[in-house]
Amino acid sequence: MYKDEIVEEIHRIREEYARSLNYDLSAIVADLQSREFEGEWEEVDLSRKNDPKNWNDSLLKDDTLMNDRENLVRKESNRYRILKIFYDTLGERSNSTLNESDIVGHLVEKREMSDKEAESAINHLINEGLLQSAYFGAISITHEGFKEIEASIKYPDRSTKHFSNKAIHFYNIAVAGDYIMGDNINTDLRGTNISGNVAGQVRDNAQQNASNFSQNINQTVDEIAKLIDSLRDIAMNFPEEYEEQRKEALDHLEDLQEEIITPEKRKPSKIKANLMALGGTACIVAGHIAGATDFVNNFTDLANKAGFTLSDLNLPQLIQSSPK
Question: What is the full DSSP assignment across 138-172?
Answer without folding.
Answer: EEEE-HHHHHHHHHHHH-TTS--SS--HHHHHHHH
